[in-house]
Amino acid sequence: MQKPPISRYPAPGLEDAPQDVRERIEAVREKSGFVPNVFLALARRPEEFRAFFAYHDALMEKPGGLTKAEREMIVVATSGLNHCQYCVVAHGAILRIRAKNPLIADQVAVNPLKADLNARERAMLAFALKVAERSYAIDEEDFVALAPHAFSYEDIWDIAAIAALFAMSNRLANAFAIRPNEEFYLMGREPRR
Amino acid sequence: MQKPPISRYPAPGLEDAPQDVRERIEAVREKSGFVPNVFLALARRPEEFRAFFAYHDALMEKPGGLTKAEREMIVVATSGLNHCQYCVVAHGAILRIRAKNPLIADQVAVNPLKADLNARERAMLAFALKVAERSYAIDEEDFVALAPHAFSYEDIWDIAAIAALFAMSNRLANAFAIRPNEEFYLMGREPRR
Amino acid sequence: MQKPPISRYPAPGLEDAPQDVRERIEAVREKSGFVPNVFLALARRPEEFRAFFAYHDALMEKPGGLTKAEREMIVVATSGLNHCQYCVVAHGAILRIRAKNPLIADQVAVNPLKADLNARERAMLAFALKVAERSYAIDEEDFVALAPHAFSYEDIWDIAAIAALFAMSNRLANAFAIRPNEEFYLMGREPRR
Amino acid sequence: MQKPPISRYPAPGLEDAPQDVRERIEAVREKSGFVPNVFLALARRPEEFRAFFAYHDALMEKPGGLTKAEREMIVVATSGLNHCQYCVVAHGAILRIRAKNPLIADQVAVNPLKADLNARERAMLAFALKVAERSYAIDEEDFVALAPHAFSYEDIWDIAAIAALFAMSNRLANAFAIRPNEEFYLMGREPRR
Amino acid sequence: MQKPPISRYPAPGLEDAPQDVRERIEAVREKSGFVPNVFLALARRPEEFRAFFAYHDALMEKPGGLTKAEREMIVVATSGLNHCQYCVVAHGAILRIRAKNPLIADQVAVNPLKADLNARERAMLAFALKVAERSYAIDEEDFVALAPHAFSYEDIWDIAAIAALFAMSNRLANAFAIRPNEEFYLMGREPRR
Amino acid sequence: MQKPPISRYPAPGLEDAPQDVRERIEAVREKSGFVPNVFLALARRPEEFRAFFAYHDALMEKPGGLTKAEREMIVVATSGLNHCQYCVVAHGAILRIRAKNPLIADQVAVNPLKADLNARERAMLAFALKVAERSYAIDEEDFVALAPHAFSYEDIWDIAAIAALFAMSNRLANAFAIRPNEEFYLMGREPRR
Fold first, then answer.
1. Which residues of chain A have a CB within 8 Å of the CB of E135?
2. Are C139 and E111 inside 8 Å of each other by CB?
3. Hey, CA dihedral for A170, A173, A177, A181, is it positive or negative?
4. C vs B contact (3+ beta-carbon pairs below 8 A)
5. How far is it, in rounded angstroms, from Cα B88 to Cα B78?
């Protein structure tokens, strides 16, 4: 069986991409050793590429009250809900690395309710999953439920916004059939030492 | 009963917003006669504000195979599915104006299957709603079903991406309780002449 | 695009309707200035016409503990749940008028949880929506939850019965594709003074 | 364990009921040997009682293209969907008698897809269940699917209207906890001879 | 209309079955007066037959904290949820006999929430139905909720395991279209004396 | 954070288990290098242990038309649907090994519709997932849909029975919180050579 292409839509050659897009892609290649397919898949629409990664960086890379591992947990849990192969596999890898825990990504993807999480993480994911699944029902009580776990109002914005960003991202990856790079499957699986 | 504020999160005074954000807001005020609350609600996070509206403009304002009325139809149909008060009311107004049809927004919001739509519009919304609701099941057949209606592959990208963008937008507006401006409710309701 | 007919089934000429049906229709025309299409659509089955409006009047027009605006709220909320174009549009108009509130109908139709409602109205709609959606699970606790809001047992009967009547009505309007009159879309939208 | 009362709401003494209501109740007692509890439960609201049974008789007792057994099948199948104890048990009994089949009611209530039905009955129940569950999606194709089975347009109205009437009826019986008479459980269970 | 066969798969003649299978079948015929079709349907796979009934007996026939009527209640409630004709009809009969209650099986199958149950039975079925429907969400609170009703930890294992066994059994009976024997429909329906 | 125990129920010491149970456990330890926790968790109920593994072996280990990799695919896909951490992780490992494919288990667990499967595998999983999720609707057409893919009627029995067995197994593992051994997470992930 031949492998499917990286996406339903052909990726442009890098030489056809605008310079800033190309530079961003080269930077990620340098850092990771390979180019995650979502960069190539979106590069054919440079304006959307720029907006997507600007949004991504504003939520996932900035300083803030949520640890980077917590942010990735939100991504993996909501992407599991949405059955997004790309996001579960790629962000699962990042989560394993950021949490220094080789088991956590599979656990969160399959069933966040049975994963090895502390109370703060459970509350965070319950909120994020509600945003992902039934945001119309979010109300004051959901905010109150997060209070005992030392989340500030800005942190709660971050939780909601990350869940919302990946609501978009999951749908793009699913609709365009973006394929996770094989590298992701094995990253971060070595046991803790 | 006192009206709730424009969002669960306080909006910054415009004088506190970065200049580009302020200019964007002033431009929309000039054009529309008022500032839609989503601009104020997101202004407290300037980077997210910029990314959000850059994405929005890249999909909703650029030239392309979809008419602007068709794009707004996608927004209203998927926002109805997600029970997003802000997006149904605000984009319902824009849809009425762009489609020059005072009935269409309420019809599409309540039940896209019973709205006054032509076959192309029906096929477009069926695809958009599948992206919104079960994107994990999008497959080649869904693309094939759009072919008879003169959608190019780029048009289909646009349909999917608009549905995905508002998957995010609906969740933000719902989680942050962004309130539609009263002006939207009445816009575009005058009967056709 | 030509407008679809008022229903999937042809309406009889008024001259073919029995006298009492005709009189009822003329009375509503006199009062409203037009004949809502549901009257014409059901007139072809005079016995069902009589039973339907007798039930309607017994619940919607009689004196009782629920205000007329509250009754229309139940109709709009449950009809939104059932995606009934006719009932949302027609009763949305009546709700705007009875509540003297041009915003309330759209809010309740899109998402009752985010509408501008007081605690009594919220409790009432929560009960009505449970009757509409999962009546098999109604139990004593649901009755108890209404007690603090000054609903009598007779009022609760009314809430349940209105939700049940429109469970029927929504299904008839959906199955027969009864089209709301254009007049309804604009009624009651002028801002409060 | 003491038996619960016939309904959450107390039934009036027959002597307190208006004469026409009392006469209807006495007539059914004469015919059946007992008074089905729905008559007693609704008698406390005489106008609703009259409208309910007028609607019921207009659909269930009148001449028409559907056999009486077919009409009861619709009731049992949709009431099973809605988990309505009263309607499944009471109309299950009537279905067994009208269909002269002691097995059919339990089969239809548990799983209409696996019941001993002919193709016409299957098509009829598929339509009725769609009206009961997702009437918003009923479209021309659903009407077309019934054509090969010798249903006239008037017959289809009857199918839809019966499903709609019991959408109401199920919700009333569930919300008011109307209890089926014990007599119903055993009626019509003697094997065919 | 000819009756469908006992299953989509042909049952072997008893003379073709291994001796232990044949003896088990003869024993049940002796005890019940007929051979329930599930025995014949599974006999074509002797190893699965043995494993199935070994599991069944280990949970349904052994001594333990749950009464036999309680165990059958779990079967009927979860089989109702799964729309399994065979299990609802066959185990409904056994439940009527074990509970000495001719009404209970139909009540539990149609709507466990409205059946004549005591508090212990309600709590037991709530747990069993959660195992049947959303076992991924079972947590410590579900165990705690059973404590006031005198269920030991071993009893709770039994409740869960019975619900799980019939999750399998329902799927087998549904997929293979195993038909309940007519005898079951009438068993245990005579009123209590 | 301390690791949770292997199950909500304490596992017996092996010395307390009956000899046949102990021997089975020792055999699996010899073969795999460790004892999968499901063996320990079920050992406290020896009769259920025996029945469970007898059923398992009869379907998963016997000769037949389905390859062993295909059988594990059914397990992983249906266990993903049921959010069963134990079965997805443990059988995901076995699937990787049997299919000699380090990617397939994660793909099938997250979204079988987007996994690298051939047409036969897709048809098989569509059937298995329907058995897992809505077995009440399995009908002749589902059998017909498998015919072009060279599945015999015995093979289809196997597909259905494996899906049914893991419907049980998933519910046991979820209800009893059986924890997958850490060894499973990494097994079979080395790339093909």
1. none
2. no
3. negative
4. yes
5. 9
What pLDDT does residue E137 have? 98
**Is D39 within 8 Å of D179 (Cβ atoms)?**
no
Rounded to the nearest 10 degrees, what angle do helices B68-81 and B46-60 cross at?
A: 120
**Alpha-carbon span E42 to E27, nearest angstrom:** 16
Residue % of chain F over a pLDDT of 90: 93
Mutant choice from B130, B135, B136, B139 vs F, greatest count of F C-beta within 10 A = B136
Pick from A108, A110, A114 the residue to mutate for testing the E interface (most E CBs within 10 Å).
A114
Note whether A touches D: 3 CB pairs or more under 8 A: no
Model confidence band, residue D193 (pLDDT cutoffs 50, 70, 90): very low
Show the DSSP H helices in chain F as ranges: 19-32, 37-42, 46-60, 68-81, 85-99, 104-110, 119-134, 140-146, 153-175, 182-186
pLDDT over 60 (residue A31): yes
Report the distance separating Cα F160 and Cα F155, nearest Å: 9
**H helices within chain D, ranges in order?**
19-32, 37-43, 46-60, 68-81, 85-98, 104-110, 119-134, 140-146, 153-175, 183-186
Residue numbers in E near D187 (CB within 8 A) = none
Cα(D152)–Cα(D130) distance, integer angstroms: 18
Please determine, for residue F131, whether its predicted confidence score (pLDDT) is greater than 70: yes
DSSP assigned state of A121: H
Arithmetic mean of pLDDT, D34-56? 98
Q: Region B51-58: what's the mean pLDDT?
A: 98
- Residue C3's pLDDT is what? 63
- Amino acid identity at C128: A
Query: Residue D191 has what pLDDT?
Result: 65
DSSP code for F70 = H
Determine the distance in angstroms separating the CA of B191 from the nearest CA of chain A, rounded to an integer.
31
Distance CA A100, CA A98 (A): 5
Q: What is the mean pLDDT of residues D161-171?
A: 98
CB D132 within 8 A of CB D167: yes
**And the tokens for A186?**
């094995």
pTM higher than the cut 0.90: yes
Q: Which helix (H) or strand (E) holds A82?
A: none
Residue range B75-91: mean pLDDT, rounded: 98
Half-sphere exposure of A56 (CA within 13 A, CB side): 15
Mean pLDDT of C75-83: 98
Whole-angstrom distance, CA of residue A155 vs CA of residue D60: 60
CA distance B41 to B11: 5
- pLDDT of B1 > 60? The answer is no
Interface test with F, best of D110, D114, D122, D129 (most F CBs within 10 A): D114
Looking at the complex, does the CB of residue B59 fall below 8 Å from at least one CB of chain A?
A: yes
Of C84, C111, C182, nearest to B83 by CB-CB distance is C111
* pLDDT tens track for D58-86: 999 999 999 999 999 999 999 999 999 99
Is F119 within 8 Å of chain B by CB?
no
Burial of B3 (0-12, 13-18, 19+ CB in 10 A): exposed
Q: Which pLDDT value is given to residue A12? A: 87
Structure tokens at B176: 């942050």
Q: Are D111 and F136 a contacting pair at CB < 8 A?
A: yes
Q: Which residues contact A74 (CB under 8 A, 6 or more apart)?
A: A124, A125, A128, A159, A162, A163, A166
Q: State the Cα–Cα distance between residues B67 and E95, nearest whole angstrom.
A: 63
What span, in angstroms and rounded, lies between the C-alpha atoms of F85 and F82? 9
The two three-digit tokens of residue D45, written as one number: 């609201």
ipTM score: 0.96
- Chain A residues 126-165 within an 8 A CB cutoff of chain C: 136-137, 139
Contacts of B15 (CB under 8 A, 6+ apart): B22
Instruction: Report d(CA D185, CA E108) in Å as an integer.
Output: 13
